[in-house]
Amino acid sequence: MARTTRRAATLSAVAALSTAGLALAGCSGGGGDAGGDGDTLRLWHYESADSAMGKAWDEAIRIFEEETGATVEFEEKSFEQIQKTASQVLDTDAAPDLMEFNKGNATAGFLASTGLISDISDAVDEYGWADKLAPSLQTTAKYTEDGVMGGDAWYGIPNYGEFVGVYYNLDMFAEAGLEVPTTYDEFVSVLDAFVARGVTPLAEAGAEYPLGQLWYQLALSQADRSFVDDYQLYENPVDWSGPEVTYATETLAEYVDKGYIAKDVSSVVAEDAGVSFINGTSPIFVSGSWWYGRFVSEASAFDWSLESFPESQLSLGSSGNLWVVPANAANAELAYEFIDITMRPEIQAIIGNNGGVPVAADAADITDEKSAALIETFNGILDDDGLSFYPDWPAPGFYDVLVQELQGLVTGAQDAATTATNLGEQYDEGTADYR
What is the pTM of this model? Predict the structure, then answer.
């Protein structure tokens, strides 16, 4: 996600966040005395109790209370609740000491630029958290004074990650006599083979995020880190008629023309795309690790795997959401102690063994075979410095722009060149204040 303009627009923009799968939370940052008694940590997060993070953080709360003697006053907040009230609450004595908040320029970056969350760089140095986070994970935790990620100051700490890869139904592959592709040419051959069998190979959704993520992954397959830095961090202008965008846009249109994607993709939502993989209708699904735990539970009638996109050094993905410390936190030091507990191997292992992607787990602690495979894929992307964030992040409202323009492309209402031009114009307008 991204930002709108600046200080005056910050709070309204936080209340207008839009994109699939957003998550919120924030941490304190100063250690003021606004209503705190020094023995209570006020904690907000929105993870469900049965999620990987919810289970891990429940255990972290138990350990924290046992080791510190302090009490955790936990309030479960939905994303929508924080979306509507964060700008008002964080500027008062009612701010929590620690909360989960979404990473990115439009969210954590906005709050950092307006002083609502604290620069926690000193705590990062004290606890050594930077040593546990790969460079691409650090990018989403550090911001400039204008709220652009990739800056020098730490405003949050992630303790899990996420990425987009390719899910394969291995039973459908075996039935068709096909192997999981290791090169892009093999990937296309597999798509052709399924089409020849009367099967639409790719589960896709054009009414929500999956189609835009596939478009960005196709661009990344032709890109290097400098393209990502230009697109996400505004280091140089993005060439919207260049090889990366041209390839992605033209190839996506070809996917529809060749039957790799259903003709009605523009009206399909993400849930329906995921279900088409779960029920064995679609053999391939390009989407995120956030589906992994659900597939373990619900796609149990067949064998499947998740791999990085073939022959691409770059993948969509980032850190998970951040622990941030509101500037008005009463007990910032307690917040730092809690963050540190969530980075311990035993807490990271809970995330990893329950379908999450920990950022600092000991591999020996991951005992679930499926979870170990997931983390191995993620670590391979980290080793290549491959995490490249998400296509809607650079500009406020760009998520909706991507959905609309790519719908026009796949329905044939506009050609690839027009689509790229329209995307570029909206991107340039939305990022003008940062370049």
Answer: 0.82
